[in-house]
Design goal:
mainly beta; 2 domains; 42% strand
């Protein structure tokens, strides 16, 4: 059966990743300006993942292990890049790339104060989910000619502002992306306005945004945003633009050189969809990656810069604050870190009876 989802995926394949598939951000369908849904949700959406979402370069990531966070792989990144979480900056020291999906697990120096729980059950059709992203708000209106004058069809992407936003959606379909030329186990959501004013879609400016689902009394991380059908045109030629379309009727969809008019005579709206990478089918890979996270460093000292260095048995490690506390002595000592390559002591502070050594 050639469903709307299959048509979406075929367009993504024909256009390539630089055509319909775009980087991600969250925009809701309801009224409101760029400030809407830019603070942690309350009420029935309280605790739904905002508190576990950090920033990796210009994108999002979610801590899922003591010193590891999960995000998308297609936007890249380099060892040494920073991940910001709950007001603290962490330096990445390595990563695990999944050869069977767009997921990427990064390891950092230090330990996170708290982490998200990863769902152990796959997403089910119709389930409500909360998505979080960092990107563009709504831009100008998109009007479609449907034979009776212009009608609102959606909004252009606004200017990228990097603000974190949240919204909701519902699971429309589970997909095997590898079977249709994409990548890994996916889930599809539609931007059709069917679940209220907080219903969200993905816009430009972010990738790696999380999708959370409620299991019992808590919210669990279930997917990572992958891509969206965003390209549209009001004519059959030219480059077109990118937008958040809740009804393609009367617009052209596809890519430059391959625009196809969506007939406006159809009675039902034709919304855009976005796809996200499901985590549960890749749980074995994730668990194996978490097991490879580097151990915290060991502090060593010596009486002279050239050594010999031995482990500082009196040192107390706090991996969350990334500090060692060492009792003061009258003897001169030289300290170094042993363990993960690249870690360095960045600051030494003297207290009455201790030295506090901070590392990164």
């Amino acid at each position: 059966m050639r469903s709307a989802a299959w048509r979406l995926l075929r367009l993504l394949i024909l256009a390539g990743l630089s055509g319909c598939l775009r980087l991600l951000g969250v925009v809701v369908i309801g009224p409101g300006g760029p400030d809407r849904n830019t603070t942690e949700p309350i009420g029935s959406r309280a605790g739904s993942g905002w508190q576990w979402t950090g920033q990796f370069n210009f994108f999002c990531g979610v801590p899922v292990g003591p010193s590891s966070f999960l995000t998308a792989g297609h936007f890249g990144g380099n060892v040494g890049d920073r991940f910001t979480y709950r007001g603290r900056s962490y330096r990445t020291v390595g990563f695990e790339a999944d050869s069977s999906s767009d997921l990427r697990l990064w390891h950092v120096s230090g330990v996170f104060p708290t982490t998200a729980t990863v769902a152990t059950e796959d997403l089910r059709l119709g389930e409500l989910v909360v998505i979080i992203g960092r990107g563009a708000p709504k831009g100008s209106e998109i009007l479609a000619d449907r034979g009776v004058g212009p009608a609102l069809a959606g909004w252009n992407w606004g200017n990228l502002d990097g603000r974190q936003r949240w919204g909701t959606n519902a699971i429309a379909q589970r997909l095997d992306g590898s079977a249709v030329g994409l990548f890994g186990p996916l889930v599809r959501c539609s931007f059709d306005g069917g679940i209220g004013d907080d219903e969200a879609c993905i816009s430009g400016g972010d990738s790696g945004g999380p999708m959370f689902v409620r299991r019992g009394q808590t919210w669990h991380l279930a997917a990572i945003q992958f891509g969206v059908e965003a390209a549209f045109n009001t004519t059959a030629t030219g480059p077109g633009a990118n937008g958040l379309i809740f009804d393609f009727r009367g617009l052209y969809r596809g890519s430059e050189g391959n625009w196809q008019l969506e007939a406006f005579e159809a009675s039902n709206p034709v919304p855009t969809s976005f796809v996200s990478t499901r985590i549960m089918p890749r749980r074995a890979w994730l668990d194996a990656g978490l097991a490879k996270a580097p151990a915290p460093p060991t502090l060593q000292d010596a009486p002279a810069p050239e050594g010999p260095f031995t482990n500082t048995e009196s040192a107390t490690l706090d991996p969350v604050s990334r500090t060692f506390r060492v009792p003061r002595t009258e003897d001169a000592r030289f300290f170094r870190l042993h363990g993960t390559a690249g870690l360095v002591i960045t600051h030494v502070q003297g207290e009455a009876n201790h030295l506090v050594l901070e590392y990164d």
